[in-house]
Amino acid sequence: MSTESAKNVLRRLFDDVLTQNKLNLIDELYAEDYEFDAPALAAGAGAVQSGREAFKARVKAFRTAFPDVVYKIENIVSDGEIVATRFAFSGTHKGAFAGFEPTGRHATVTGIHFTRLVNGKIKKTWAGFTNIAEVLGPKR
Amino acid sequence: MPAEQNLKVFRRFVDEGLNRNNIEGIQAEICAPGLTLEAPGVPTDAGHAQGYEIFKQAVLGFTGAFPDVDCTLPYLVAEGETVAADIAYHGHHEKEFQGVPPSHEDVKGGELWFVEFEGGKMKHVRICEYGTPLRTAMIAAGAHGAHP
Hints:
heterodimer, A: alpha+beta, Nuclear Transport Factor 2, Chain: A, 6-stranded mixed beta sheet, 4 helices, B: alpha+beta, 5 strands
């Protein structure tokens, strides 16, 4: 897969799925045996989960916590198989998220997202947040 | 080919700066003086204003706490002036780190790094953890060590 085609898969994820909430695209962009390793959003949920439906639930949880969420790709690189994205998402923090109780604040959370593509579909994601404790934690 | 050169610089950071605990010896060669750092636990303003010094102290804190740390690069992607890396590590926790007393146990973890270069040196560094956070892993290792 060309590096540009690989990046376009991630652009559709960040723009169409995560920002515009087009959940039906997950079946198109993701492999059936998709795995992800990312910070748990809800108490009791493990970091490692799998499957398209689990990911749809994760996107819904995101939108519940940040109903007006907008994602921005700040930089993206790829070798055709791995796509690495430096991202930020902004929104109003209205629901519990990754262990942080709702603050009502408009926040911008930064992070890094790695994806491995197989046959043009997202097979695995591992990702994390950088400044989440600073922007969603108690103000000092 | 800036990507090839930047990859060499980043590998040198991992091999020499982390695995051989020599960030002080090589930092001037691999980091731009105005390096900006975004990392968990580092206030954004401080990481932008004093990134070079905070970067050094953060690396020294980590390698001091894990003197036998072994960092590898299971995934590494470079394009133009950007290097993105998955750094996997393990090492024995021998000194207090992030407020957690040493367990002397082997602790492992992983970080994602996204680095933008300028003039062959690291200029902007963003870091995040993935999987089990290091602090959680250290606490778990300590609990395990207390109940062999």
